Amino acid sequence: MKKEIDENVQSGPDANDIKTVCRDCAFSEYEGERQTGCRLGKLDKFRQLGETIIPAYDDTGKDFYIIQDRFCVFWRDPNWKDSEFARIPKDKRNYDSLATRVRHEVRAKFLTIVYLDENSTISDLKKTVNSLKSGSLRPKKIIFCDNKSSVDTRELIKVAKSSGCLWGLERIVEDNASKQRCVDIAVKKSKSSENTYYSFFSAGEPVLKNFHSDIDNAINDDLTKFLALYVEPEEKEGVVSEGFVGQVHIHKQIGGNARSSFLEKVINVTGEQECQSLVRPLSEIVNLQ
Question: Which of 116, 129, 158, 240 has fewest C-beta within 10 Å?
Answer without folding.
Answer: 158
